[in-house]
Write a structure and sequence with these properties.
There is one protein chain. The chain is of the alpha+beta class. 32% of the residues lie in helices and 24% in strands. The chain is built from 12 helices and 20 strands. The strands form 5 sheets. Strands 1, 2, 7, 8, 9, 10 and 19 form a 7-stranded mixed β-sheet that branches. A hairpin with a 3-residue loop joins strand 14 and strand 15. Helix 2 packs parallel to helix 6 and helix 9 crosses helix 11.
Length: 438
């Protein structure tokens, strides 16, 4: 026994020496581990929210299933830890089909009918997680830490005997006969069922990439190219630089001749873009050339605003013209509004502003227009549009309609929810449904 232990230690030292000297990445067999085929009933590609929930659900349904997760990052759930500003907004009290967009829309309607908000909350409660709901309907872990959500998922995987392989670079993925073959730099996996839950291109620093596209195409699936969503929108404007760093509340509308979507909330200004949750929700539909209209005083009518401006002209009659919007807007925003209304001479006194100019300023307060140039990139995107075409997936099981034994869940599917926990809700729901049908 001592000789065996010495041999293993010696082999390990030789392994480290060769890796250090030659830069070789050797196979992990130096301590008696057999590198051969890894055989499983189900192999899940991607250890994010959907993949972890899929693994747990499959073992809850059938404890005898041999299930493994293959994850390219050094740990599972890396992106999950960043959601909700580190608090993990895992679902929303207002989950409904109209919060989702993409070709899997009809499938999402079916899934949401079986997985309403309370069911997701109950699933997590049984895993040991307590939650609370804020005034906007967003659910968070009671401890306000995203790590708690990940921990209860990880612990459940350990408890149910799910095998997890991290830092795995997949070289190829295919179906051979009735089995799926997945080769990585370290292992050759073989399974009866395969689940693609490897996410989208959003947040590449957290591991987001387009591998789902390559894998889906291996199985003859149509793939909608990924595009960034839930992100700031770059716009064309002469005053945007002067507003950098400001925040304002109001109503935003996305239009292209007609209004496609409207939201109310906080707007944040950057040097080249508009940001904030309400803007993120517009980004799901925005395209170059569209217009974003902002009503900075959506609780006031045009007539009421004009009356306020006339009042301020009298109150601040001896002040410089750029004081006109004092008490209504932050000064830089007030100046920008006046510039967009065509006012340029701020050395004038408020009393000198003519009525026709007041009407233009009141009009800009109600309708400031920005032209969309592009959505900001995947680095700033919380999610992505695109993925496996929705009509090629059975919404009752999440199984492919083209390849028996192949399943999809989470962001790999062409479905994108609004801000507020809707995407995580779908990830958990679709993952749970897929796992229950493995």
């Amino acid at each position: 026994m001592k000789i065996i232990e010495f041999s293993k230690t010696y082999a390990y030292l030789i392994y480290l020496q060769r890796e250090f000297i030659y830069g070789q990445r050797l196979l992990p067999c130096f301590l008696g581990e057999n590198m051969g085929n890894k055989m499983f009933d189900a192999l899940i590609i991607g250890g994010g929210a959907a993949g972890l929930m899929c693994a747990i659900s499959s073992k809850q349904k059938n404890k005898n299933l041999k299930v493994a997760i293959v994850e390219k990052n050094s740990r599972v759930g890396k992106k999950l830890l960043s959601t909700g500003n580190g608090r993990c907004n895992l679902t929303n009290a207002n989950v409904a089909p109209d919060k989702y967009h993409g070709t899997f829309f009809n499938g999402a309607k079916n899934i949401l009918s079986h997985y309403p908000t309370q069911r997701i909350i109950d699933i997590f409660a049984k895993l040991g997680l307590l939650t609370y709901c804020d005034n906007e309907g967003r659910y968070y872990p009671l401890c306000r830490q995203a790590s708690a959500v990940l921990d209860v998922l990880r612990f459940a995987c350990e408890r149910y005997g799910v095998e997890v392989f991290t830092s795995q670079n997949i070289k190829n993925l295919k179906k051979h006969g009735d089995s799926f073959i997945c080769n990585t730099d370290d292992y050759s996996f073989k399974s009866k069922k395969l689940v693609l839950s490897n996410g989208s291109k959003a947040s590449p620093k957290l591991g987001g990439n387009a591998s789902a596209a390559d894998y889906a195409k291996n199985f003859n699936h149509k793939f909608i190219p990924f595009s960034p969503a839930l992100c700031p929108i770059e716009v064309k404007s002469d005053v945007l630089k002067s507003l950098k760093g400001l925040r304002a509340t109001g109503k935003v509308e996305l239009g292209n001749g007609n209004i496609l979507r409207s939201e109310v909330g906080e707007i944040q200004f950057t040097e080249k873009a508009l940001s904030g949750i309400c803007i993120f929700n517009l980004s799901v539909l925005s395209k170059k050339g569209m217009k974003i209209h902002i009503d900075f005083l959506n609780n006031y009518s045009s007539k009421e605003i004009l009356s306020l401006l006339e009042q301020n002209r009298n109150l601040f009659s001896g002040q410089s013209a750029d004081c006109l919007l004092t008490g209504i807007f932050q000064k830089r925003l007030g100046q920008a509004v006046m510039k967009m209304a065509g006012f340029t001479n701020f050395s004038d006194k408020c009393r000198d502003i003519p009525n026709i100019q007041l009407k233009k300023i009141a009009s800009i307060c109600k309708n400031t227009e920005f032209e969309v140039t592009a959505n900001c990139g995947f680095d700033q995107a919380q999610a992505a549009l695109g993925g496996v075409c929705g009509n090629e997936i059975d919404e009752n099981t999440m199984q492919s309609k083209k390849t028996k034994g192949l399943y999809f869940c989470g962001e790999a599917i062409d479905i994108c929810g609004d801000c507020g926990g809707y995407n995580l809700h779908f990830a958990f729901a679709s993952g749970h449904l897929a796992g229950a049908n493995l």
